[in-house]
Amino acid sequence: MKHPPAIHIAALFSLALAAGCQHAPPSASPRPGEEYLRFAGKACDVVEGNLPEIERVAEIVAQRHLDGGLIGFPYNYQGLQQELMGRSGGMVHAGFERPFQKERSEAERTNDVAIISWERAPAERDLQLIQEAKVRGCFVIGFGPRRMAALAEHARACDAWFDTGFADDDSVVRFDDGSTGGRGNCLMNTLHGWALTAEIVSALTRRGKMPTMWKAYLYDDGIEWGNRYLGKKQFHDDFRVPPIAKGKLAKEYLRQIRGYLRKFERTQLSNVERAAKLIAEESRAGRKVVATAMGHMPWTFVAKYEDAKWAEPHDLHYNTPHQVEDYLKKTGDGALVVRLGYSGMHPEDRGIFEKKNQRVILITAVDTHPGWEVPPNMVAVIDQCWEFGDACVSIPNYPIKLFPPSGVMQLVAYECVNVEVLNRLTHPR
Length: 429
Description:
Helices cover about 40% and strands about 15% of the residues. The protein is built from 14 helices and 11 strands. The strands form 3 sheets. A 5-stranded parallel sheet has the order 8-7-9-10-11, with helices on both faces. A 4-stranded parallel sheet has the order 1-2-3-4, with helices on both faces. Strand 2 (about 115), helix 6 and strand 3 (about 140-145) form a beta-alpha-beta unit. It is globular.
């Protein structure tokens, strides 16, 4: 299949963005949160429109993986690498540090695939990461804004590139004063990344193989499931999955995401506006809001852009002692907190916030494991709208669902709050 020119993808994105973010007359103008959701829906359309290229690259990756290659991530402190590794419904052996066997031949190593993304400008060493991967035989797949000037050489060095459609500015929401905010690169990369993963899996099924996939640790047997396969089995010999047609899994994943976006818009915008009002009031009083995130990708975007005007970032996982110690030491008693969570709230998290007497805006999935219920004393709760277990795509003869919506919905929910806050802060007191 011929590789479509980059301008095709950029043009497709530009048309979708214009359709999603065009301003109606003032009386019917969508709220900033609605604008971001419209962008997210159009982003799904752009990725689906790029399926021929996704399928082409997936065939290459599947064959390399079948020939002993690992699918891994040069580490550059940006989002997609964090998102694709070790996730519910993702590939168990995603990551160069997670081989499926102790020793591999040189021929197998030269079949490795390197995935690297950019949501913002590259670090000085990033080009060297690509060059080092190519020297050892990797097929390198880049994700990001091809027209960003700082990425021109990086894009040329990659064997394949999934374009976000942006250049140096990836803002997607225009505020009442004419300024812009709410970022698009990370969402575009994430959707492309999971669509590619889905098509790699289906390409492998057409070669008679089903890769081992993670079951969420939310389930009581999730850890045991993972230990059964990690470092031991590249492909299942305990389940036989029939061949899956090209495009089927990626389309189903995008269909599920569109459903979560519609549910979020239908049910959560009033909660978003309540949270934004509280944050804007805190910011106008001269106090930064504690933005504390958990999960794989959020630390790469929380308080990294315009949201730094109101947000002070702190990573917090209850089972990471140095993060807990740092949080207790550095955040204020009684502070307003935006907790970008995952599934409900763990009791130890709740104890940390109560110890600091903090007021918590919780962004989470409320369909949760018993014992992780949402506490009743939150000042606002925003439901990410995905279902317990996270992964959302079913396939024949396989006992668990594949591909998580949580990373997408964490990002979308947070950006909806962010753009509502930023718009309020453009108004005079």
